[in-house]
Write a structure and sequence with these properties.
Layout (H helix, E strand, L loop, with lengths): L1 E5 L8 E2 L2 E6 L3 E7 L8 E5 L2 E4 L2 E2 L3 E8 L6 E6 L3 E5 L8 E4 L3 E7 L24 E4 L2 E3 L5 E3 L3 E4 L7
Antiparallel strand pairs: 1-8, 1-12, 2-7, 3-6, 3-9, 4-8, 5-6, 9-10, 11-12, 13-16, 14-15
Length: 165
């Protein structure tokens, strides 16, 4: 489960994601916080079927990875100020389920991760439209499972028209 986004641009953009999650027909074996480094904002397991957390975002993201006793059984009920929903666990797949929550790209994402991740390399090709004149600063961002991110410096591309004749 990942929460992300902000209220709006500028001061006062904080979104408070304090909330709870409860399972019916399943239990939690393990939780691991994702991108949560404020010691006052944590995820706490109350019992085998209930979690509560305190969290805030200002445009970034945070959340947790939750290992369940049965990866297909039961339902998950989420309650926050922005999102209240109940989702069958079997419907959470490898392609993220996104629940929009207004604001500036404010949303909650649910996605299933594989038990083991054999993917240690990435190769990606993109076709990009470039400005017809001037430079085009591009960035690359890599986000790891634990929430750590690596950003490139600006990569400048120029759209150059070659004259023939």
């Amino acid at each position: 489960m990942i929460w992300a986004g902000a209220e709006y641009r500028g001061r006062g953009r904080e979104t408070v994601w304090d909330g709870t999650a409860s399972l019916a027909g399943n239990t939690i074996e393990k939780i691991t916080q994702v991108n949560m480094y404020n010691l006052e904002k944590t995820v706490t397991q109350l019992d085998p079927s209930h979690l509560k957390w305190k969290a805030v975002t200002t445009g970034g993201f945070g959340g947790f990875d939750c290992v369940l006793n049965d990866p297909q059984a039961g339902t998950l009920t989420i309650k926050t100020a922005q999102v209240n929903c109940t989702v069958p666990i079997a419907e959470i797949g490898f392609h993220e389920m996104r629940i929009d929550a207004g604001g500036l790209d404010r949303h909650l994402r649910l996605v299933r991760l594989p038990d083991t991740n054999p993917h240690l390399k990435l190769s990606l090709e993109r076709t990009l439209e470039l400005n017809s004149s001037g430079d085009n600063p591009l960035y690359v961002c890599v986000t790891q499972e634990d929430g750590h991110q690596a950003w490139s410096s600006r990569i400048y591309l120029f759209n150059q028209v070659l004259e023939t004749g």
